[in-house]
Write a structure and sequence with these properties.
The chain has 131 residues and is mainly alpha-helical. Helices cover 58% and strands 9% of the residues. It has seven helices and five strands. Helix 7 links the parallel strand 4 and strand 5. The model has no long low-confidence stretch (mean pLDDT 92).
C-alpha cells in the first residue's frame, strides 16, 4: 500500500496541472490500495477553500467522493465521515474532525479560544478559564 499526499489529492480534484494530473491518474490506475491520513484530508480541505476559493458545497462533494472510493483507506474513516456530515451544516471541517476525535477518545470536552468552534457545540467546546 502507498499513501497519498495532499498535493496528489488536490491535483486530482482541481485538475489544474496537466503533467501532475496525468501522473496522479496513472498511479490510481495501478489498481492498488491507497492510505490517506486524516491530516492530508484536513490539508486538502484547507487548500481547496483558501488557495482555490472553493465554496463549502463543492468541498463537501469532493469529500463525499473521497469517502466513496473503494481503493482508498482513510486513517479514521468514521471520524472523517462524521466531520464531513457536520461540515454540511457549516463551520470549519478541521474543527469538526477535532471534536469527533476528542469524543472518540472519551474526552469530556475541548478547551478552545475559537468563538465559532464554541458556538457550534457550547456543551463540549468551552473557553479556558470560563468556569
Amino acid at each position: 500500500m502507498m499513501a497519498l499526499d495532499t498535493n496528489v489529492i488536490v491535483r486530482l480534484l482541481v485538475r489544474d496541472e496537466p503533467g501532475q494530473l496525468a501522473a496522479a491518474e496513472g498511479v490510481l490506475r495501478e489498481g492498488q490500495m491507497f492510505f490517506v491520513p486524516d491530516l492530508v484530508v484536513a490539508e486538502a480541505v484547507w487548500v481547496l477553500r483558501r488557495a482555490y476559493g472553493w465554496e463549502p458545497a463543492r468541498v463537501l462533494e469532493a469529500l463525499r467522493g473521497l469517502l466513496s472510493l473503494s481503493d482508498v483507506e482513510l486513517e479514521d474513516e468514521d471520524s472523517v465521515a462524521a466531520a464531513t456530515e457536520a461540515y454540511a451544516e457549516g463551520g470549519d471541517w478541521s474543527d469538526h474532525l477535532i471534536r469527533q476525535k476528542a469524543r472518540n477518545r472519551g474526552c469530556q470536552g475541548i478547551y478552545s479560544f475559537d468563538a465559532e468552534f464554541r458556538k457550534r457545540d457550547p456543551e463540549f467546546v468551552v473557553e479556558p478559564g470560563s468556569g
